[in-house]
Amino acid sequence: MERLQKVIANNGYSSRRKAEELISKGRVKVNGEVVNTLGFKVSEDDIIEVEGNILKTLTTYEYYILNKPREVICSVSDDKKRKCVVDYIKTEARIYPIGRLDYDTTGLIILTNDGLLANILMHPHYKIKKTYIAKINGILTEDDFKKLRKNVMIDNRKVIIDNFKVKKIDKIKNTSLVEVTIHEGRNHIVRRLFETLHYDVLKLTRSKYAFLDLGHLKSGEYRPLSKEEVKALYNLK
């Protein structure tokens, strides 16, 4: 037996907090009856209906990493008919991306139908590190390095930079490749970080998520995660 809100979250329908809200508002039925008790438990044989949608209580969880191309939306659908990350993965499961990358940002994105793992990886408490490689229109100065070491302020909050290094400098084109590792997830945070130093990000890719990297995956390619990798992601909690 499992708590109803946990089953809803594990099915990927919503976060557990949102599931509790739906239960409290009477939008969840079990075996045709409205349930608004948060401690209610269900079994594998129960039929759960959330806002008119019937969930599967016996879910086979799937986990993938994708090397997201440019001009692709980190969503399950798009009203402008643009390509979405889920379009690249051949599965019948109702998977969705964990977090997001900007439309023009490439690189590693995790997709799954495991709501519990998604909540762990996106929760700020666990400080999951993500590494990005940015191509910027200039060459960092010593003053820039000092600012990065002291942590840059954005919206009156520090951006905690776990690590950064310059990977390549092109003096002829006046560009640099800079690797940045951070653990927060504010929107456009890497681009905004360099904007505060008066640089434009020409290209941006996420090369690592926690211990996962792209390996030999080319743009648009994906692979399933191994059981060991999934276990290791859960252990980040």
Task: Characterise this structure.
With 237 residues, the chain is α+β, with helices and mostly antiparallel strands. The protein has helices spanning 4-10, 16-24, 115-122, 142-150, 189-196, 227-235; strands spanning 2-3, 28-30, 33-34, 41-42, 48-50, 53-55, 63-68, 96-97, 106-112, 130-136, 152-154, 157-159, 161-170, 175-182, 201-209, 212-213, 222-224. Strands 7, 8, 9, 10, 13, 14, 15, 16 and 17 form a nine-stranded mixed sheet that branches. A hairpin with a 2-residue loop joins strand 5 and strand 6 (53-55). Helix 1 (4-10) packs across helix 2.
CATH class of the largest domain: Alpha Beta
Number of helical regions: 6
CATH superfamily label of the largest domain: Pseudouridine synthase I, catalytic domain, N-terminal subdomain
The radius of gyration is: 21 Å
Structural class: alpha+beta
Number of domains: 3
As a percent range, the share of helical residues equals 10-25%
Brief write-up:
This protein has six helices and 17 strands. It is an alpha+beta fold.
Provide tags for this entry.
Alpha-Beta Plaits; Structural Genomics Hypothetical 15.5 Kd Protein In mrcA-pckA Intergenic Region, Chain A; four-stranded antiparallel β-sheet; 6 helices
